[in-house]
Amino acid sequence: MPKHDLTSMEHPLFSLSTRPDRRILHYEHNGSEITITPSVKGRATIFDADILIFCISQLVAAMNAGRATSRRLTLTAHDLLKATGRETSGDGYRRLRDAFERLAGTRITTNIATGDLETTSGFGLIESWEIVRRTRAGRMVSVSVTLSEWLYRAVLAKSVLTLSRDYFGLRRPLERRLYELARKHCGRQPEWRISVETLLKKSGSASPRRVFRAMLRDIMKKGGLPDYAMIEEAGDIIRFAPHSEAALVDMPEAAPLTDEARNRGRAIAEPGEDIYALEAEWRAYWARSGRPHLRSAEAAFLGWLKKRNA
Q1: Residue closest to 177 by CA, chosen among 139, 212, 128, 214
Q2: Phi and psi of 272, rounded to 5°?
C-alpha cells in the first residue's frame, strides 16, 4: 500500500503549479520553519512526490518483512510508473527523468524533527539518482535513488501514513494536497475543521484567497477526494469528514510472505518482474476486496499471481 511521510503531508514542500515554479518559499507554522529553494528546473511538484511515495512504500514493506534497508534503492522503472498511475510510453520515461532532476535540485532548509532528533539542516529531497538503459532500444531498465538522510530517518521512525491507491488518480494538484492534509489531520477523528485562510497557507497554493475558496467549492461540488467529504461551514470554515471511519483505520496487513513463497512466485511471474512489486500489488488487491480472512497468505498470493498472468 502507498505510504507517505508525515512531514510532507503536513507542510507544503511541493509545488502545486503545473509550470516551472522558481519561487523561494519560506513557511512557518507552530514553531516549524521551512525554506524551499528550487533549482533552475523549478521546485519539485506534488506529482514528483509520487517517486518518494513509491520509495517509502518499498522501504516500509521491506522493514515489515524483516529485510535490510538502506537509503539507496534500485527500482524497476516500469513498476514505478505503473504503481503511480503513469504512462509507460517514451514520454512517460522522459517525464520521470525530469521529476528526478527537480527532486534532486530542490533544496530544503528546516528545523523539523524526523524521528527523535531536531536539527536545522539543508538537503535535497533526494541525494542522487541514476538511470540504467538498454543501449540498443534506449529504454529505461532500472533507476537508482538515494534518499536524503532526513527522509530515510523519518521512514525508520515509522513517521508515515497509508494513502488510498485512488490518490494517484487525482489529476488536480490541489485535490492531492487537500487529501494529504485530510489524511494527516483526520486520522482516527470523526472530523477536522480548518479556516480557509489557514488551509490556503498549509496547502502551499499561490492563488488569492477568493480564487482559492472558489477552487475549494468546485472540488466540494464534484466530491473528488478519496475517503473524505468536504463541507463548507459558517465563519469561512471547511470541515473534513471520513466517508466511513472504518475506511481510514490502519487495519492489519496480510501475513508476510516467506522467501520460499516469493521464490515460487518468481517461477510464475513474467521474466524480469519484481516479486516485491507484485507482492505490493497483491496486498492492494486484497485490501480493495475488503481484507477477507486468509487461511494461507502464500496460497492466496500464488493463486492471485496465476490468475493475473493467465
Answers
A1: 212
A2: 90, -10
